[in-house]
Specification:
By secondary structure, the chain is α/β, with parallel strands linked by helices. It has two domains: 8-105 and 249-276, Leucine Dehydrogenase, chain A, domain 1 (Rossmann fold); 108-244, NAD(P)-binding Rossmann-like Domain (Rossmann fold), CATH 3.40.50. It has twelve helices and twelve strands. The strands form two sheets. A six-stranded mixed beta sheet has the order 2-1-3-5-6-4. Strands 9-8-7-10-11-12 form a six-stranded parallel beta sheet, with helices on both faces. The protein starts with 7 loop residues before the first strand and ends with a helix. Bound molecules: 2'-monophosphoadenosine-5'-diphosphate.
Length: 277
């Protein structure tokens, strides 16, 4: 019998049943013929620390963290990457030999990889970005766009104070636009990003006037259910390049999978089709 341990990983959320990550990681494990398991775990907030301290002893090499634990896990982790600190949340944990927990955030990486894949012609210097929303997802998007070299990102958020907080944290390349003015700001943007939950199945519509969309712009939505949101359909009709949100979810999983199971997985059409099936 082999002494090699079978690596275990998974996703911790509360609830967690909706997560597509087990399908995705399970597919990659089978596709590459790698030993390993990836398990969904529903863990209540009060139990999070106990569970995280126990998992390494049970053969876990790391886990993904999802709602509502992405911020609180920062208080438990022993080591935190700079990008997770900047974003204020973690989604990928790697357990060291001694059980030490290293927390990283790969959401910004997932966003930018998906954008580059879906809009290969886009360059950070093409012009300003317009971002709708200023929540947790917005923070990951901003950090990756600033990192990529974007000079200006305008943010429109229903609660203006939340957008202003992002200026104080991320600096003067961030500009605040009134939520009611978001439609007017579309025309001059090279890149438009929806980071709000509006437009998602079961949520209200994103009621921003889209008549400013025109050819040459790139428009992306973090909402991936439905895949083609009303915003993406309006952008497509106006001749914009559109990028749906599923790819961000797929790409954010790449660094974790590579660390835990030892192979960098490909995000391709086959992967997309499998996760959507
Ligand atoms: P996430 O971590 O997914 O970004 P979040 O932190 O709750 O979730 O942020 C949700 C975003 O959607 C916020 O920008 C929120 O605006 P507020 O800061 O004003 O709450 C936005 N949002 C949610 N419902 C909205 C609505 N009905 N109208 C406008 N914006 C909305």
């Amino acid at each position: 019998m082999s002494n090699a341990k079978i690596p275990l990983a998974g996703v911790i959320g509360h609830p967690v049943a909706h997560s597509l990550s087990p399908r995705l990681h399970g597919y990659w494990l089978r596709r590459f013929g790698l030993p390993g398991h990836y398990i969904p775990m529903d863990v209540a907030p009060a139990d999070l620390e106990t569970i995280l301290r126990t998992l390494p002893k049970a053969g876990f090499v790391g886990v993904n963290i999802t709602v509502p634990h992405k911020e609180t896990v920062m208080k438990i982790a022993d080591l935190i990457t700079d990008r997770a600190i900047l974003i204020g949340a973690a989604n990928t944990l790697v357990f060291g030999e001694n059980g030490k927990i290293r927390a990283d955030n790969t959401d910004g990486f997932g966003f930018i990889e998906n954008l580059r894949q879906g809009a290969p012609g886009w360059r950070p210097a093409d012009g300003p970005g317009l971002m709708l929303g200023a929540g947790g997802a917005a923070r990951a998007v901003i950090s990756s766009l600033l990192d990529a070299g974007m000079r200006e990102i305008q943010i429109a958020n229903r609660t203006r104070a939340r957008a202003e907080r992002l200026v104080s944290e991320f600096g003067p390349r961030i500009k605040v636009v009134d939520w009611v003015q978001a439609g007017n700001a579309i025309e001059d943007a090279a890149l438009v990003i929806n980071t709000t939950s509006l437009g998602m199945t079961g949520k209200p519509d994103l009621r921003v006037p889209f008549d400013g969309f025109h050819r040459g712009q790139v428009v992306t939505d973090l909402v991936y259910s439905p895949l083609r949101t009303p915003m993406l359909m309006a952008a497509e009709a106006a001749g914009c390049t559109t990028v749906d949100g599923l790819g961000m979810l797929l790409y954010q999983a790449v660094p974790g999978f590579e660390r835990w199971f030892g192979r960098r997985p490909e995000v391709d059409d086959q992967t997309r089709r499998h996760v959507l099936a």
